[in-house]
């Protein structure tokens, strides 16, 4: 599956994406880097987080994050820094703002709506009396019935 | 014309287009003139299609095998160094060929459906043939006029380009055909649904005919998806198998709705309820399959601008898709009032209501995936802003729906049809669910014990515990009952094992489904554990360095250069040892393919029952050092074990012939009254 999309990416000449092997080695206290890099999207390999990505650009971005951590910048500020430069697009987890409101609300609204319709329909359905003629068989059924 | 085999293939495809038009024409006239004899011609045209298209596909494969560089598609996707096995499967390695594969499966399915149901569904058959043949025409026109794999190059180049190196893997041989077998398989139920809408008839007989086709397509689709995940896992080198990327999502949507349909059709078959709902699910499933194929193939998901680069293809795709959807849902809206559903007394606490609830949540999941996949596209068109909807969104919205579905999986199969309260007292129900609830608490405790802190992970674990216990208890109870019946009936004590065997062969549909559920639950366990407890470490290593991962010590042995048939590689070897005892040597590679100018990673994987060690070789630095990433993935193989169980169970359910009579009692189980004294 993924490789098919990777295939699409590659046809767009984003060759560096898969397997370029540009990983960044971890310093022992890089847990924060890991957390932050997982929340940012790699601009080259668009399905992957910065952390998973093997692209050279991702490595450089990770180096920037490391530098900022060393300078005492907070996690949120680092995320904001990248968001300012790359737009909402760079955040893996869409924030709850006007652009994304529908995205977050719709599934649950749909679920509640479906459940309410289900309950109403079920109630009304089970109260209707049985009509007399519903026993008749369809022609196909008659043809197929073994007897 | 110069006698090139591919030209005969093109001719065959053109003939096939004629054949499909012929079939539509004759099926239609048999309806209008009311002369069933004309159907013989229509049927024969349907039987011709697979012969013609198979021939066409073979000419393409033939060109690949003989490296006929006068064919543009061969030039784009192979070269003289490409191993034979990938030449054979290069047909579906790119856009044009994979649509050809779609068509190939479509004509085979159509001919089979025509043949199998020719006498059993005489009145629906004209509509079924017209629907299928129109779909074939839609694809053939696209293939012949807009995306032809038969194009020739004059003069032919001396050497071809490269099949995408990522695709040069045994996974290519199985994954796309399986996935397409699933997608296309929904075309037969779709044709049946269209026929049912036009004729205003969807009853138990309809359900029986569609169920098997759907089940087959579902098995193929499930296998295709999971095999794709496995392939991604060992080929792409990022330690995971599923990234919620658009292409994966495209295959997941029809899977959700197809799964929902497989459950709701039980209600139609058994109770005659939800006829419209069932048809709706079939239509949605097939439209999503089409959408999936086209979304992936048009490249529109990567960027809206993909449309701009080749507008004719995009416009055709959009037009075809809209036409299919308008016709399907238009028919549903205007004809569904003809479908008759007998109203009956129903209780909320009944199997049918649980099945419908399961449908609702599966549909919510499908809707969410749909929204999330298309949202960036819609946002870009409307606001021009590029937005990201990635794994974190899907994990936090789709997974809760799936957890609810898993809970319902433990309730639905064990409570009776009609009205659970009337038949089984509240006491019995409480007894039925006491152990599953305890088990789900136990699973949470064990999960916390292993260090899972993720809330969604813990909920998922409790759902799995609940359903697993409930399913196993139910099977065990049936076995016990049967063993007792047999003991009293024949006065010969039978073993539990033997009565289990009897149950399996007696009602293959029910116990097949139970086995499928167990498979799903085991796969879910694998997903939960590998998703919440995996570890990743990236380190710089010099030869001789060690790294501790779980209970294992990995020693880096060094890197050497290796040459493959069409690539050169750097191969790193690692010695794995446990408590000082050497266990295994695994190698991880980076391959570069000079012709395609691409680099791929071949991860080194040591698979075990409880965990995988997964090593990716990064770039090399000075002094023979290299950056290496270690993944520790617990229980990840359970996903594939679960898949195997699932396939076994669904094949068991599939094997139950239509002739076999199943006697149901009021509580929805197979009647054992016939056996009891």
Tally the beta strands of chain B: 9
Highest CATH level, the class of the largest domain in chain A: Mainly Alpha
Instruction: Order the strands across the largest sheet of chain B as they lie in space.
Output: 2-3-4-5-6
The tally of structural domains of chain A comes to 2
CATH homologous superfamily descriptor of the largest domain in chain A: Cytochrome C biogenesis protein
Q: Terminal Cα separation of chain B, in Å?
A: 77 Å
Which percent range fits the helix content of chain A?
40-55%
Helix content of chain B: 55-70%
Helix run count of chain A? 6
What's the total helix number of chain B?
Answer: 21
Radius of gyration of chain B: 27 Å
Task: Report the order of strands and helices of chain B.
Answer: HHHHHHHHHHHHHHHHHHHHEEEEEEEEEH
Short summary of the structure?
Chain A has 147 residues and is an all-alpha fold. Chain A contains six helices and no strands.
Structure description:
The complex is a heterodimer of chains A (147) and B (677). Chain A has 2 domains: 2-90, Cytochrome C biogenesis protein (Helicase, Ruva Protein, domain 3); 96-129. Chain A has helices at 2-11, 31-38, 56-70, 75-86, 101-127, 139-144. Chain A has 6 helices and no strands. Chain B is built from 21 helices and 9 strands. The longest helix of chain B has 36 residues, at 455-490. Chain B has 4 domains: 1-168, Four Helix Bundle (Hemerythrin (Met), subunit A), CATH 1.20.120; 171-412, no CATH class; 425-532; 535-635, Sandwich (Tick-borne Encephalitis virus Glycoprotein, domain 1). At the A-B interface, helix 1, helix 5 and helix 6 of A face helix 7, helix 9, helix 10, helix 14 and helix 15 of B.
């Amino acid at each position: 599956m993924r490789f098919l999309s990777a295939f699409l990416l590659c046809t767009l000449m984003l060759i560096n994406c898969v397997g370029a092997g540009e990983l960044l080695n971890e310093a022992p206290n890089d847990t924060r880097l890991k957390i932050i890099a997982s929340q940012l999207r790699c601009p080259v390999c668009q399905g992957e987080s910065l952390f998973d990505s093997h692209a050279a650009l991702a490595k450089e971005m990770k180096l920037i994050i490391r530098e900022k951590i060393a300078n005492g910048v907070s996690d949120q500020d680092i995320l904001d820094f990248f968001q300012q430069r790359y737009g909402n697009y760079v955040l893996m987890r869409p924030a709850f703002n006007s652009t994304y409101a529908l995205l977050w609300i719709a599934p649950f609204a749909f679920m509640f709506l479906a459940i309410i319709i289900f309950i109403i329909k079920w109630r009304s359905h089970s109260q209707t009396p049985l009509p007399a003629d519903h026993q008749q068989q369809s022609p196909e059924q008659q043809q197929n019935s073994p007897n | 014309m110069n006698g090139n085999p591919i030209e005969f293939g093109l001719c065959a495809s053109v003939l096939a287009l004629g054949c499909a038009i012929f079939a539509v024409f004759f099926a239609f006239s048999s309806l209008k003139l009311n002369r069933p004899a004309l159907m013989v011609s229509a049927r024969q045209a349907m039987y011709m299609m697979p012969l013609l298209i198979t021939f066409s596909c073979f000419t393409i494969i033939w060109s690949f095998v003989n490296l006929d560089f006068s064919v543009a598609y061969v030039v784009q996707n192979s070269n003289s160094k490409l191993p034979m096995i990938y030449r054979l499967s290069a047909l579906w390695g790119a856009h044009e060929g994979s649509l050809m594969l779609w068509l190939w499966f479509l004509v085979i399915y159509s001919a089979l459906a025509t043949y199998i149901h020719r006498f059993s569904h005489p009145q629906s058959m004209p509509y079924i043939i017209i629907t299928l043949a129109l779909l074939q025409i839609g694809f053939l026109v696209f293939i012949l006029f807009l995306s032809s794999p038969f194009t020739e190059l004059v003069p032919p180049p001396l050497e071809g380009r490269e099949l995408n190196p990522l695709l040069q893997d045994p996974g290519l041989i199985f994954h796309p055909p399986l996935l397409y077998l699933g997608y296309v398989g929904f075309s037969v139920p779709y044709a049946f649904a269209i026929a049912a809408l036009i004729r205003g008839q969807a009853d138990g007989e309809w359900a029986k005919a569609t169920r098997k086709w759907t089940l087959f397509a579902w098995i193929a689709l499930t296998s295709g998806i999971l095999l794709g995940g496995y392939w991604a896992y060992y080929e792409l080198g990022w330690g995971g198998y599923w990234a919620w990327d658009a292409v994966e999502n495209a295959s997941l949507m029809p899977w959700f709705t197809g799964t929902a349909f497989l459950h709701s059709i039980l209600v139609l078959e058994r109770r005659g309820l939800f006829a419209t709902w069932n048809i709706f699910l079939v239509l949605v499933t097939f439209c999503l399959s089409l959408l999936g194929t086209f979304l992936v193939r048009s490249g529109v998901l990567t960027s809206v601008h993909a449309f701009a680069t080749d507008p004719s293809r995009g416009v055709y795709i959009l037009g075809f898709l809209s036409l299919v959807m308008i016709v399907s849902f238009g028919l549903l809206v205007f004809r569904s009032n003809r479908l008759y559903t007998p109203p009956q007394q129903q209780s909320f606490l009944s199997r049918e209501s649980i099945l419908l609830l399961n449908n609702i949540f599966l549909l919510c999941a499908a809707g969410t995936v749909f929204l999330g996949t298309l949202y960036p596209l819609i946002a870009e068109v409307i606001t021009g802003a590029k937005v990201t909807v990635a794994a974190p969104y899907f994990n936090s919205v789709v997974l809760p729906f799936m957890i609810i579905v898993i809970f319902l999986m433990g309730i639905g199969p064990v409570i009776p049809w009609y009205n659970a309260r009337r038949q089984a007292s509240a006491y019995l129900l409480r007894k039925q669910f006491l152990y599953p609830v305890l088990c789900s608490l136990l699973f949470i405790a064990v999960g916390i014990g292993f260090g899972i802190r993720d809330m969604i992970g813990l909920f998922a674990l409790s759902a799995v515990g609940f359903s697993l216990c409930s399913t196993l208890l139910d099977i065990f109870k049936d076995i016990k009952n049967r063993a007792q019946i047999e003991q009293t009936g024949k006065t010969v004590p039978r073993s539990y094992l033997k009565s289990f065997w009897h149950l399996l062969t007696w009602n293959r549909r029910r116990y097949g489904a139970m086995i499928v559920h167990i498979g799903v639950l085991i796969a879910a366990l694998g997903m939960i554990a590998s998703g919440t407890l995996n570890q990743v470490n990236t380190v710089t290593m010099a030869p001789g360095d060690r790294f501790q991962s779980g209970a294992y010590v990995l020693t880096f042995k060094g890197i050497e250069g290796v040459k493959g048939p069409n690539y050169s590689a750097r191969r790193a070897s690692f010695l794995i040892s446990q408590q000082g005892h050497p266990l295994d040597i695994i190698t991880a590679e980076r391959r570069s393919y000079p012709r395609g100018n691409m680099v791929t990673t071949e991860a080194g994987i040591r698979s075990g029952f409880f965990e995988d060690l997964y090593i990716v070789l990064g770039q090399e630095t000075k002094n023979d050092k290299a950056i290496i990433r270690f993944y520790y993935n617990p229980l990840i193989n359970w996903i594939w074990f679960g898949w195997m169980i699932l396939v076994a169970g669904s094949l068991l359910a599939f094997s139950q012939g239509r002739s076999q009579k199943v006697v149901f009692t009021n509580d929805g189980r197979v009647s054992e009254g016939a056996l009891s004294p």
